[in-house]
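writing this on my phone so excuse typos. first protein, seq and then structure
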Amino acid sequence: MDVSATKVTLTLPDELLAVVDRYVAEHHGLTRSGLCADALRDWLRAQQEAEIIRYYETLSEEERAEDRSWAKASERSAASLWP
């Protein structure tokens, strides 16, 4: 997969960099950049999941009922397409 990237400089505490370097040394083919990119993707995914949870926690009972209705309609539609 061809992914464009931009080089950046990070300043990390020595003990954190030592952990990164140790992990990279133990996992052939992994680089500092790759590990940092993976960690940032994981962080972003966690942020997005937290945002979704916050959204659903703020729904009114009426909105929750509507959401359940749409989910049931989706299930029926999927079942008719993929029996």
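second protein below, same order as before
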Amino acid sequence: MRAIHYGLLVSSIALACARGGQPHRPPTPLGLDEYYPVPEDNGLTRERVALGRRLFFDQRLSADRSIACASCHRPERAFSDSLPKAIGVYGRVGRRNAPALVNLAYAQSLFWDGRAQTLEEQVLRPIEDSLEMALRLPELVSRLANDRPYRRAFHRAFGDRVNADNVARALASFVRTLRLGGSAVDRFRAGDTAALSAEARRGLRLFVGKANCTACHVGPNFTDEQFHNTGISWGSGDLGRFVVTGLEEDRGRFSTPTLREVACTAPYLHDGSMATLEQVVEFYDGGGNPNPGLDPEIRPLRLTAEEKAALVAFLRTLSSRGCRPAGSDQVER
């Protein structure tokens, strides 16, 4: 499990963290599970979150100093991108769509194929990836160590020097605080019956019933944290989870993304092949893309046009602030 809080509410989260390096957990947004794991060797502190935030927006973390983590994970888009596939240094096109960094503190594995198990492991991989930031870790450490304010910030956060492990801990701390709930659906579930329109309530009934969305999108974060083959990009050469496990049954399987903030995270799916929620609903209504490993839960739904519209209306209520969260205009860019 893992958590995220809409990015530049992070400045307020950081200020809420206890001073003096003492662990602290910010308040839990409405609708989310209060529990999320924090490693014993990387407790959340004000200093670590602030340092991680600074690193997240720093273009010096890329080989040619042209992009930062925030270039592909934009706060106003729920820390996702607006492109089908992310663009890295030197204009290099990534392998997959940049996923939203919403509520990753609850995630049980990371990346579309689940190749990382912790945020501390995950955050360094894009920095080193040749199609993303393409920066070797020794060079990263050298750049940061040659900056006096960074040296001081690392000492305040960890009582230690700049090193790759502490870069990972700082970035992971920032991402771990990016939790976002409090959507119309959460308010409806908490008893505010006016929070959802009549159409969105019909969509909710379809979501848990005829459309069978909860077969995969379940729980407070609307994901089962599992891997499924829906046929997306089948035959494209992207083998998904199979590359990690080598198991034939994992061929073409990809992780279930959260539906939190889904109205802000287009284009959709691991290959960014669908531009709208309407297209996504049409795809699943048709039973996915048939292939030998198609998940048994994926089958034709035969929704009417009105039902499809209601389902999309419900999905839009899973976004808490539209596509520009409060405070995002003050985000460091």
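DSSP finds 13 helices and four strands in the chain. thats all i got for now
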